[in-house]
Amino acid sequence: MRGDLVRKLAARVAATGLAVLAFLTLALTGATGWGLALAVAALAAAGWERRVRPAADSTAEAVLLAAGILVGYARRLDAGFDPALAATALVLLGLVLLVGPLRQAGDLEIRAANLPVRSWTPLIAARLGDALLVLLAVVALAAALVLPAWVALLVALAVGAGAGAVAADLAKRRFRPGAGGSAVARALRAHRPEFLLHFSAPPGSEYQVTMWLPYLERIGRPFFVMVREPEFLAPIAAATSAPVVYCPTLKAMDEALVPSLKVAFYVNHGAKNSHCIRFSQLTHVQIHHGDSDKAPSANPVTALFDRNFVAGRAAIDRYARAGVDIPAEKFVVVGRPQVESIEVRRAPATGLANPTVLYTPTWTGHHADANYCSLPVGETIVRGLLARGATVILRAHPYTGQNPASARQLARLTELLAADRARTGRQHVFGAAASRELSLVDCVNRSDALVSDVSGVISDYLYSGKPYAVTDMVGDGDRFVERFPLAGSGYVLRSDAGNLDEVLGLLLDTDPKAAARWGTRAHYLGDFPAESYAEAFLSAARRELEPGWNPPAPRAADAMTHSPTA
């Protein structure tokens, strides 16, 4: 999060500072060439700011740059009053004043992908800010080349005509909506979806949805994904053939929630979930984006949902242990379908000369009490693995770059692995090769053991039957396994990594907890046949779609909680 803040502040300072400097240079000095160059640099900085701050308001900078560029243009032409240049100034002024409101109006429009509709107006409205920056750069270039003012006027009029068309269409949508709602709403009614996946999250979180898309498709019923932030529309649409609908407002949600819908699924506890939960005609099912012993995995907000699909009995115990009172009938154990492709190793593989170890440091979390990140001792861990002749797969959490310190620590680890690969020829995997080219399942299948922080990766790895070590970065010591029971079937690495040699010996040489992990595996991931593992989730989801279906009350034996074998 601090990394995002630094980038946003840097972009703001660069855009504003260069705009002011360009204006002062053009307005108060005779260095027109330098002033125009600074203006172009300021426009590039404003474009960068729009990438890191999509909602950035660049009106003040645009006014300064437009005024400065026009002053420089007039000085270059040196022809007195030029009607074409004056008209260009008026068009630029109108665009500077209109672009922000038009973009805001476009952002309030429902948009969709993978539906037979084309919502061009909101898309163009979203790009008008970029178009204005390009237009100002073209006018600056025309000034630098001393082109006739009518050239700049024609370009400005073309952009102005596009903005006018967008304004007219948005006004029509707002004040004279078509019969039957928007085109997106009509297309959704024709699609007749039976369920939706509602999604709201910070940028870079689309993995929470994409991990579930194959299984939602295998349910075999029509559905769509509702996203609440515009940046998710394109990447999620690229990962599925199902419709993806961007609903920025409650009014847009009212249009998208067509009568055929029966169930809404959720993959996190985003604040905007409440916007969808208010639709009481739907059954609301939380399916989560991972299973771990982290504190957020026992979030009391879960009680709001009608059903809570969990991987195993351990999740139910976790809520009880945290004092979160959720009726037993709301829980449905469905396994973790994403692990079905993980290869299971029944026989222990110990004493390997050149083991492959997967290291998956998590991120620092939103709050200090959820910071389980081991990157501060990551170099010690990696050097210890290299000393044992291990090939390392380094796969960091997608949010790692949001913390500058974590980003630097991760960069140091990649440098170590790259240097060792060049020196020894061991094929370490890191960077994009580990995070994009390989899936987590690929990484698990390639490895012989895991070193991880408290995270959902351990639960997934547990399915393989292979050994794992867990970092105690909270410094709980003897209480660590009590707070994070999954660590009981693994080997606990202290927060200072002082017992690294001992842990690596247990992990890679003797693995005394090999037998105990199978009981833990059933407790955390359900005891379902490997050949039809994902069917537990698919069957449970299909039952929710059956009209009038209600789950039977759990039997007393089923409701009992138990501890994993350790």
Automatic annotation (TrEMBL):
InterPro entries, alphabetized: Glycerophosphate_synth, TagF_C
A GO term, aspect molecular function: CDP-glycerol glycerophosphotransferase activity
One Pfam family from the record: Glyphos_transf
SUPFAM superfamilies named among the record's database cross-references: UDP-Glycosyltransferase/glycogen phosphorylase
Gene3D superfamilies: 3.40.50.12580
Transmembrane segments: 84-102, 123-143, 149-168
Record key words, sorted: Membrane, Transferase, Transmembrane, Transmembrane helix
Domain of life: Bacteria
Protein known as: CDP-glycerol glycerophosphotransferase
Native source species: Micromonospora haikouensis
